[in-house]
Design brief:
about 140 residues; alpha/beta
Length: about 140
């Protein structure tokens, strides 16, 4: 099963993403902010195939988190989708410059998010997409 790490400080958003990803056949881990995300990644025996990350979070925001993930040789090739209410073109450009593979604005269609995650995973050759349920 492909694995995704959901990084968001809002419990209801993590629950929404987790539920839909699990229904689509993903294993899901959660982090409450960027610091938690980097801690989970530093201890992981198996890296996630993809990460969804919010922009606005306490302790470490999403752009700083993505920058740190891309700077680490162990994590730089994980597919990353930024999921944020910050939908202004300048915000999207900041995310893309930091290294996200795709940017999805909240509120989002869960099926669209899943398809976006699958798309970015396919760019890295991550996961076994044949085992993922169609949504």
């Amino acid at each position: 099963m492909p694995r995704v790490l959901v990084v968001d400080d809002t419990a209801s958003i993590r629950f929404l993403i987790r539920t839909n990803m699990e229904l689509a056949g993903f294993e899901v881990d959660e982090a409450v902010d960027g610091v938690d995300c980097l801690d989970i990644l530093s201890k992981a025996l198996v890296m996630p195939d993809a990460i969804t990350v919010d922009v606005m979070m306490p302790r470490m925001d999403g752009v700083s988190t993505v920058t740190a993930i891309r700077a680490n040789p162990r994590t730089r090739n994980i597919a990353i989708v930024m999921v944020s209410t910050q939908g202004h073109p300048a915000d999207i450009q900041r995310g893309l410059r930091a290294g996200v593979d795709a940017y999805v604005t909240k509120p989002f269609d869960p099926d669209f998010l899943i398809l976006t995650v699958l798309d970015v995973m396919s760019r890295y050759g991550s996961g076994d997409e044949s085992s993922i349920k169609s949504t």
